[in-house]
Design brief:
Layout: E1 5-8, E2 22-25, E3 39-41, H1 57-64
Antiparallel strand pairs: 1-2, 2-3
Length: 65
């Protein structure tokens, strides 16, 4: 199923992403994936799951609408 995914980098060759970074992607509902499109997020301030709701696209849609 397609959908936004919140996850943790387990291996990376990307210069801006390292192992352990928390990211948002469009990989869908799966355990592992590979992408060049990952958005790094700060999970130390907000729980990672909140990036899929209140501080993510649904929350921004509600705030701006």
């Amino acid at each position: 199923m397609v959908g936004q995914t919140a996850g943790e980098v387990i291996e990376s060759r990307h210069p801006n992403l390292k192992k352990g970074d928390k990211v948002l992607t469009q990989l869908g509902w799966q355990l592992y994936g590979s992408t060049g499109d990952a958005i790094k997020v700060d999970a130390s301030r907000v729980p990672l799951s909140c990036y899929l709701g209140v501080v993510g696209m649904p929350g921004m849609t509600a705030y701006l609408a």
